[in-house]
# Entry
Amino acid sequence: MIRDIIAYGVKSGWKVHDASQLSSDMHIDADVAIVGTGAGGGTAAEILSAAGLRVVLIEEGPLRSSSDFHMLEREAYPQLYQDSAARKTKDKGITILQGRAVGGSTTVNWTSSFRTPPETLAYWREQYGLPGYTPETLAPWFAMMERRLNIHPWAKAPNDNNDVLRRGAAKLGILTEVIPRNVKGCWNLGYCGMGCPTNAKQSMLVTTIPSALERGAVLLTRARAERLVFDGAKITSLRVRALNAGGITTSPYSVTVHARHFVLAAGAIGSPALLLRSALPDPYERVGKRTFLHPVVLSFATMPEAVNGFSGAPQSIYTDHFLHTQPLDGPIGYKLEVPPIHPVLAATTLIGFGESHTRLMNELTHGQVIIALMRDGFNEHSQGGSVGLHADGSPLLDYPITDYIWEGARRALLTMAQIQFAAGARSVLPMHEDAVPYHSLNAASKAIEAFPMQILRTLVVSAHVMGGCGMGNDPKQSVVDGNGAHYHAENLSVFDGSIFPTSIGANPQLSIYGITARNATRLAEQLTGRPALRPLDSVS
Amino acid sequence: MLTRRQLLGGGLAAGAALVIAGLAYEFSPDRALRDPHYRFVILDEEDRAIVAAIAPVMLAGALPAGAVEQVVRGTDVAIAGLPLHVRAQIRQLFGVLRFPLTRMFVAGIWHPWHSANAGEIAAFLQHWRYSPVVQLRSAYDALHQLLMAAWYGNEQAWPPTGYPGPPKVG
# Structure
């Protein structure tokens, strides 16, 4: 029997309020109010509450825990993801996987944990005036979070889906490496994306958030942060709308949160949207701009042997070879990984309908998929997207895909087919509506060269939303400074992936953990006037 | 006579279609699929006839006899789990498919849905899938994702795929 640490904690007296159960308005006073409970909010909550501050966490999604995680796509996607795992960009050209539950995307991600690449940090130092962002000065913060979340390279054998990437790349002389994962006692089941049923994944849900709740933090769920109230110098309160139990419609009740300091950690779509709804000063119109996605294209292979891509750690092998075949600011580079292959994810992703689609589904156990995550934001032709608002105040991301990105997408489709054929694929189907399964590299290459590259013809997805509240030393260019402090409201910080001035070029969770740990520690010291716990070897 | 532009302006252009995966029935999608007294949340009788006509074509070769009703119900549950602005866009899509003039001139379906034949429906899907009008491509994508999720989220769909279902834990 697996111990449901959340149910146990709630029973022991944690201050958790499900706003959908309110029968009157509510007021909360705290030292720090944190909007969002993902990688940024969770990390900040633990650090700030450990410093003795009274913390309240506001989460739009529900509190779900191991005993709710039944490894069923039909339950997990509507309960744990934004828009039932089908969040779309404005023109519907990109589908975004993003969490919406306590723990945010960390509750449903595939556990890959990379430090921010040195070349990304170098670009930030040069272009955005962030001298404190060196691999050396950040190393203690990354090391601290790696210890906290038990991040280690996956020690077991990769599953066959990952092994195809390793084998195919090896045949071509391309180096692959083992992915570090945030797991402890992992059962190697393969269902990280539906919420870990064994509490092995060291998500915010089972680490930092319980630790903050143990120290008296308040957690408000099914609660949508609607508006920060600004008095011209600082934020005075946060207006929160309760949702109904299903999480779709709003309840008549609201919650008003007063705090000394406010932290936005609602993710790179949610945080800029809250700033826009609040109409905070934005004299250079930077809020919501330069939002990055690591746009992903996919290649589906049918292997002679069974792959069973639904089973085993979903991501354990990667290659950065194609991030380094051209300069950082040259043609777009991409990281190669694989995704888990479950029936709904596969069926909705696989192109076509009717008999041809059914044939692919009936060979699902032999299916193998590689994904290419393109590193956007390092070239003048890759300015990312912009977050705006629907009439009802909900966020809308407009992300036009430029020719610069399409060129990389075509190159990536070709690369992935090469690797899959090198690994012995019987056929390769690039995820493009014009494609059919190709039985040779030659046929696949010819087809890929000729594909019209357009949205809703070339399949493009994303699981990494970054930017929109970019940091930097110049308020004309940036929303927050290098510590995540908002330039125009004195008691407001942003601690999530939205502060990245470009994409990361790797799965972003550890970048968010490490940078938030640094910035939240500085905030704790500022608010308490006392030194906070720091990693021993941190110098700045 | 409405022009194509007006049709798109009124029906699709404002947002066209969207998409989905997964099913939501407030607390238990499982209950929604089994409940003999299931009450449709989103789809009325006319919408259901459309889904029931498209499903055997979208999922040709995959649906056993009698499974169409499961797809129709799964589609309703899936839409019910989406934010209100997305639901509104799906409503617009069903509006285009229902209204006879748009059904004929935008979808190319000349018979009422219950009597449309499979070839006609396949041609409609194929036409939208490759349309130069991006809103029609996204409408195809919405139907694709909705119906695929509605069927493959259901364990009845799994045996032919070889997917064994989730492992036992605890």
